[in-house]
Write a structure and sequence with these properties.
The complex is a heterodimer of chains A (383) and B (81). Chain A has 383 residues and is α+β, with helices and mostly antiparallel strands. Chain A contains eight helices and 22 strands. Chain B is mostly beta strands and 81 residues long. Chain B has a six-stranded antiparallel beta sheet, with no helix packed on it. Classes of the chains: A alpha+beta (383), B mainly beta (81). Strand 2 of chain A pairs antiparallel with strand 5 of chain B, so a sheet runs across the interface.
Chain lengths: 383, 81
């Protein structure tokens, strides 16, 4: 690697001989360049400069310093530009200081606890600009885990300038008793049994039977040897025809909006974060407006003038369109019915009834015959 | 067997070593001094001969003990005793 060099111009006769002597003395010369018959430019290491110059001057050579090159030139330029160097050092110091702080907080997986985590960070004074060294990640993890009991664990880490808090929510433990205990299957709602398949236990009903909610469909016991009853967990599939109703009410009054004919033009100046009205806005009770924009700043300045035409409105009650209101009521009642049905239910038939318009309200009731699974496990086994 | 018999001549420091890279760089190891120099001709003393390097825009980029690096366009190398 080449050291920092000074460059000189050497004038005299028999330069080659002196260069050879310098080389034999152990000095290294760089970029030796012939300028004319008596002149040579050369460079040498800064720490050897004094000895080489005194050697050459003692032999009558004229030595002229040349402008610095390479790293020496850069150092020389820095010396002549002190404010720039100070600015550069300040910028480096600022950058170094800013790298010691956190500039972003990322919370993942918190879900409903996001607000709780944020308030915890606020209480602990963990905000943007906090020094990284002052952050105790283990303490954050333990305190957050203690504070959020339904959270399985919390992992806090620093990635560059970001404080990452990863919250993993716990899954509630299933009800072991209901999974493992014995019991019967009862009817969840009224209906007529369509089909029954028993996997464990003893059937209490057969197809065609009418059952009410709470009636036992499969007993939680099986007959063993010597007519003993062994308690089991009843399992099976029972489908039944049930009837589900849903009602929806809609207003039979219709209001329509019309323009009075009064209007006023208003101009507003739009900047990215500011909307400045250039004239007072009209004082209509009810109004609507149409706008057109004029980009006065062109593509580079985000300034637009909005021309807003404000129209005065009035409301008018109109004679109801009964067919449209009935259609709307029917649509809403069917929607409610579908919300009551579960995913595997099969609708066999449905009936729709409308009420009279009373008090400005029309209601629709839809009743559907549904083929559905009505079995519901009950831990108690009735006799 | 004597060691000098199995080692190459440049390793035993009996001969100079000249490395020419393309026609742009010439490295002389084991020279014994610079006799004359200008941008078209460099004469250097080797251990058993005199080297005359001719070319264009020749500069001595490094001139150190026992080693000389020449940059520029080398047109010819000539040896004389």
């Amino acid at each position: 690697m080449r050291p920092l060099c000074h460059y000189i111009r050497l004038q005299g006769l028999g330069i080659e001989k002196q260069l050879t002597r310098l080389e034999q003395m152990g000095y290294t010369l760089y970029d030796v360049r012939r300028v004319d018959l008596r002149t040579v430019e050369l460079g040498f290491a800064v720490n050897e400069g004094e000895a080489i110059l005194s050697f050459l001057q003692a032999r009558g050579f004229s030595c002229t310093a040349l402008p610095p090159r390479g790293a020496v030139q850069t150092l020389h330029q820095f010396k002549t530009r002190t404010p720039f160097v100070i600015f550069l050092l300040c910028a480096l110091l600022l950058l170094s200081f800013s790298m010691r702080c956190i500039w972003r907080i990322e919370i993942t997986g918190a879900g409903a606890y996001i607000g709780e985590v944020r308030s915890f960070l606020k209480e602990e004074n963990l905000s943007i600009g906090r020094a990284k060294q002052a952050i105790d990640l283990k303490a954050i993890e333990s305190r957050l885990t203690h504070r959020l009991p339904r959270v399985a664990w919390v992992h806090a880490s620093l990635h560059g300038l970001t404080l990452c808090i990863d919250v993993t929510q716990g899954v509630p433990m299933p009800d072991i008793e209901s999974c493992l205990g014995n019991g019967s299957i009862i009817a969840a709602q009224d209906g007529v049994i369509e089909a029954i398949s028993v996997f464990a236990g003893t059937a209490a009903v057969q197809p065609g039977d009418s059952v009410k909610a709470g009636d036992v469909l499969i007993y939680g016991h099986e007959r063993g040897a010597n007519d003993t009853l062994l308690p089991v967990r009843a399992r099976g599939s029972i489908t039944a025809h049930t009837y589900i109703s849903a009602t929806a009410a809609v207003s039979a009054q219709q209001l329509s909006i019309h323009r009075t004919g009064n209007s006023q033009i208003q101009y507003l100046a739009h900047l990215p974060m500011l909307e400045l009205p250039l004239a007072p806005s009209p004082s209509y009770l009810t109004e609507e407006f149409e706008s057109s924009y004029l980009p006065v700043g062109g593509a580079w300045i985000p300034l637009q003038i909005e021309k807003r035409t404000v129209f005065e409105l009035y409301l008018q009650q109109e004679a109801p369109d009964e067919a449209a209101i009935k259609a709307e009521a029917a649509r809403l009642s069917l929607q409610n019915l579908l919300l009551k049905c579960s995913k595997n239910d099969e609708i066999i038939d449905k009936w729709l009834y409308y009420s009279m318009i009373e008090g400005g309200i029309l209601s629709a009731t839809v009743t559907a015959q549904v083929l559905t699974e009505i079995g519901l496990f009950s831990p108690e086994t009735p006799e | 067997m004597h060691l000098n018999a199995v080692l190459p001549p440049e390793a035993t420091a009996k001969e100079s070593r000249i490395i020419l890279t393309g026609d742009r760089s010439l490295l002389i190891e084991g020279h014994q001094g610079l006799l004359s120099y200008d941008s078209h001709c460099i004469k250097a003393r080797l251990k058993h001969a005199l080297l005359i390097c001719t070319g264009n825009d020749l500069t001595i980029s490094q001139f150190a003990c026992d080693e000389m690096q020449i940059k520029g366009q080398v047109l010819s190398l000539e040896f004389s005793s």
